[in-house]
């Protein structure tokens, strides 16, 4: 809606969509965001907790997040999708991203 309106008003804005899939079963939620297939040049950032059954794997290529797997961390879906869609350079941010106390929204705010 918003992107369509901007384009109709003459502000040429590309539409970007980050694919995602969520599955629930046995009190566990698993979410896949973006491209979760490992690539040769990829690196993975692991983010645990705060609960023992919560886990996040963030896949990066050339200092950009390309995908993520969330286990019982569905609230992070929106911000990680935004980080992927904006092609945000996360060089030197790996420790911040890995820290479960860090607010990932701060990456977009800067």
Topology:
Blueprint: H1 2-8, E1 20-25, E2 28-34, E3 42-48, E4 55-61, E5 64-71, H2 77-85, H3 94-98, H4 105-109
Antiparallel strand pairs: 1-2, 2-5, 3-4, 4-5
Structural description of this entry:
The protein is of the alpha+beta class and 110 residues long. 24% of the residues lie in helices and 32% in strands. The protein has four helices and five strands. It has helices at 2-8, 77-85, 94-98, 105-109, and strands at residues 20-25, 28-34, 42-48, 55-61, 64-71. Strands 1-2-5-4-3 form a five-stranded antiparallel β-sheet. A hairpin with a 6-residue loop joins strand 3 (42-48) and strand 4 (55-61). It is globular. It starts with a helix and ends with a helix.
Outline: globular
Give the spatial strand order of the biggest sheet. Answer: 1-2-5-4-3
Q: Give the helix level as a range of percent.
A: 10-25%
Helices and strands, in order, run as: HEEEEEHHH
Distance between the termini: 26 Å
Number of strands: 5
For the residues shown, what is the average pLDDT? 85
Find the structural class using helix and strand composition: alpha+beta
**Segments where pLDDT lies below 50 for 5+ residues?**
none
The largest pleated sheet is described as: 5 strands, antiparallel
Number of helical segments with 4 or more residues: 4
Percentage beta strand: 25-35%
Q: Rg, please?
A: 15 Å
């Amino acid at each position: 809606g918003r992107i369509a309106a901007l384009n109709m008003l003459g502000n040429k804005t590309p539409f970007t969509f980050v694919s995602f899939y969520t599955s629930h079963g046995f009190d566990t939620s698993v979410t896949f965001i973006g491209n979760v297939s490992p690539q040769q040049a990829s690196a993975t950032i692991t983010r645990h907790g705060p609960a023992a059954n919560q886990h996040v794997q963030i896949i990066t290529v050339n200092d950009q997040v390309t995908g993520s797997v969330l286990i019982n961390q569905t609230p992070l879906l929106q911000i990680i999708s935004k980080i992927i869609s904006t092609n945000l350079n996360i060089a030197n941010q790996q420790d911040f991203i890995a820290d479960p106390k860090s607010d990932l929204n701060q990456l977009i705010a800067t």
